[in-house]
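Subject: Interface between my chains keeps coming out wrong

I've been trying for a while to get a sensible model of this assembly. When I model each chain on its own everything looks fine, but I need the whole thing in one frame so I can look at the contacts. Pasting all components below, labels as-is. Any help appreciated, I'm running out of ideas.
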Amino acid sequence: MFAGPAFHPSSEIQPPIAPPCDVDDLAFGELYEGNLSLLVAIAVRKFQVPEVDAEGLAHEVFLSYLKRKNEIRQLHPWLIGAICHACRYFWRQNGRRTDQLDQELAMLRPDPDSINIFDLLPSQLAVREVLEALPPRYAQILRMRYYDGYTIREIADYLGVTAKYTQKLVGKCLRMAEQMYNAAPARKKT
Amino acid sequence: MKHSDDLRHLADCPSCRQRFAENVVPFDATRRHEGALKFAAAAARLESERSETMDVAARLRDTPQSEWPRLAESKALRNNAALEQLSNEVRKRLERNPAEALSIANLAASIAESISDTYPPLVIAQIRSTALRDRANALRYLGKLDEAYDAIETAESRLNEFPAAVHDRAIIWFVKAMILAQMDHFDEAERMINAASLIFADVNDSARFLQAGVIHGNLFGRQKRYTEAENLFGDLLKIAVSSGDVETEARLHNNLGYCYVNLGDYTKANIHFSQSIAKFTDLGFAAELARTGRGAGAVLIGKGQFELGCERLRQVRTAFEKLQMPEEAGLCALRIIEAMVERGKTDEARDLATTVVSEFTAAALDTRAIDAVIRLRTSLDADGATAEAVRTVHALVQSLALDESRAS
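Reply #2:
Try treating it as a single job with all components included. I did that and got this:
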């Protein structure tokens, strides 16, 4: 059998067919000011990028938009897609730049987590068990409040809800956790 | 509508965007305003250059190709807008004259590497990476794959410091995937094309998403993973239909036809080849139409449907003759000759070879092509020609045809 012709190749990489979204030249400043907060919010809340870096990333997303402007059909999906991938790339780069641990120094300094480990371990295991059994959103709220040390205000910002509602939410999560803790068969006997 | 903080929803819902962005980050108002001013200044500069820059295509036409490198000194070409036009000129020439495309890409790369640093650093990085990407692509078309790979790696490295150059990076990965595929590094090519596709989908670049999908499907095809290719092309076809991209639709039907032939489902293959031919007919892409037909005919012969395949190839050969493409017509004939030799129909093969010699001579094609077909005919006269010998002549004629188009 002779070598038949292969698949039809894709035509060479071309800009999108549809017309670009319409951005008036004079509206560039407004475009920037009107969307900067959104991009920074996505970087900070969805990707935990530090605020200063998030602003830098958002600014660069706008700059990179200028070169591709004529190909972009819908502005907001493009901006949001770009900031998300920019954040991922940022973390990939940032992760690589993390300093390696000094092994000798690490041997000399005790791990703070292992102090009183035998006293604390049973409670920690019980809490972990309860957290794992909670619905993911409840578990995340409790982790943020009691493990990561976020304030009610910060958790509210993260969730995009009011502080008052967040306070109620934390109380609800605690009550559910307590019920689960007491309902566990092993502890019922004690 | 259910409102949420889901990113896809945020892209569509202005009120949720506003709510999501509120009360999160305390901004330094001065810094924010400075950022807006810098952005507006960069935008104004790029836009004014785009409206004021000369017609670069005309400048290229008016300058002998041997003097193109000197254009790098021309002040009129040393800006982003001129480089964007040069990039378009490279793209236009890739298919029909990659050597010329490479000359222009080299000119653009030379300008880009020494361009004024008054642009923001990210824009300079985009300008340089685009010029290098075009160079890599031209080298790929010329089969200089190692050089192409080096160029695309350098293009990618220009963007390393800029996480936000997301779309540019994805396009570079796309080109890199094609280079890697040509180098038979399928796994790495697949990884690259997946990464690029993900970004094209997220930034709503449906045209490039489809192109990347076609490349991915072709990768499956080259590895004989026809079921995966068929699934992917089927999914892409739905997207192409819904987005009204008829050209991609036509290419996908052709590729699906090829998958089904290799999977032994000739009925479905026939349906898709017919659809492809119908679409290319509607588009008026006569050469693509003929090439699709040649593919269908050749694969049919390969699968043992000799008469049907030869008949298809004869029709396509006539189409190429009408298009005044004697080399393509001759290549069709050589496919038929190969099939005839495999089935011992030496007399018919010899007659057809004689016709090809006449056609090539009349069209004053490269004498090496004509001599090769004459030698083939002599072998056929002596009953000494094998299918492998015909394939060799086919490959030679094809490569000479490519060389000619590159040298013109």
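Reply #3:
Confirming on my end. The first helix of chain B runs from residue 7 to 12.
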